[in-house]
Request: fold
Amino acid sequence: MKHSLIVIAAALLFVSFVHAQSPALALDGSTAYVGGYGDILDMGLSDWSFQIWFKTTDSTGGIMGKTVYGSVVGRWGVFFSSGSPNILRVLIQGTSSTVQLDALPQQPGNVNWNDGIWHNVTVTCVRNGNLTIYMDGVYNNSTSMAALSTNNLNVTGQFFIGAYGNSTGSGPQANFYLNGTLDEARVWNKALNATEVAANYNVEIPYPQANLVGYWRMNEDSGTSLLDLSGNNYTGTIYGTATWTDGPQTLPVELSSFTAVLTADFFVKLHWVTQSETGVSGFYVYRGTSASLDDAILISPMIDATNTTSLQEYEYTDSELFEPGTYYYWLQVQDMDGGVAYHGPTTVYFDNSQNSGIPGIPVKTGFTSIYPNPFNPRTTIGYGITKAADVSFNIYNQRGQLVRTIIEPQKAVGYWKLEWDGTDLNGQICPTGIYYIRMQAGSESYLRKAILLK
Reply:
């Protein structure tokens, strides 16, 4: 069975649409910053997250945090390293240890995040887990927080946006002002997960809400005050030569509905309507068996967008469900500029066993799923075979090196599952990375990709 795709373009309603572009704050790199907060937003013993949009071509300066110059317990923040030009760095200081993490290059050979393009950096801290960086809504890098898991990360010093604090935390450090533009800054006293990051990094969010302890939209467009929308009244003061300018554009699609229904032949039909599209490459459909996008798998090719300002309707049919249960679907919108956004989940309950008059779904040879994907460190591989055979799975890393072989002897016709625990041939957990799983059933072979993400 194959997926079917129907695109229905209907000019039923004309909606004018311009990229959503709100104000942002431009700083001069020598005098301008946002401060006056006093001693707020200590990490304490909690999990933590912070997010902010930035655009700059300078290689130094603080972006956001309680960053105090020198070794001070409890300092935290994201900044451009003065000793390593173009390095975007996150630092958290404990009583005896410092956890430091740098954003990985955008692509091989390009280490420059100071490219004059809007970027979003999201940092999440799980006190008994990892410190993680997401760039533009996508996982970038992580490291262990074990050294600071029990540290009370309080610091006497001020919170800054657009500067790095001096040695006493009372004001900015000389030459550590940001030369660039900032927008949409948030601080949470919880660790956002990958699903939450992907869903909210490029949209304005409702306020106030639980765990949101600081939220500055920077939409004032005038004046010297930066309002906090979290409900904690952390209003900042804008100092020095700062100007109001245009902020980043949100993803250029206006989606009015996204639904899933079970058809008479026991397929799932996904339907979505866009009121307007501008600069959209297309759409992808993801499916999962839980409400977490982290566990979902990609099930569609790119579905091309039409990029018109009139109403458009799209349909995509998922014909590869076999086991009864509730399924969750997400729609990924892919921007021509590389940005992504997710809508969903929408759910449907699948059960083809209630009507004996409906023919059963025929078995086919190959993968049915790899779930979860990405995984850490275990994942379940689903597959089917149309005739009895020995089935083997060879798993390779990105260099093409064999890291694991799993043999499934003499499997009967039907659908099967096996678990890979993430270990290699020596029984060691494989490192974070992309792995290729080759299934061999008789003379037929199939290849799927899986991502191990620690």
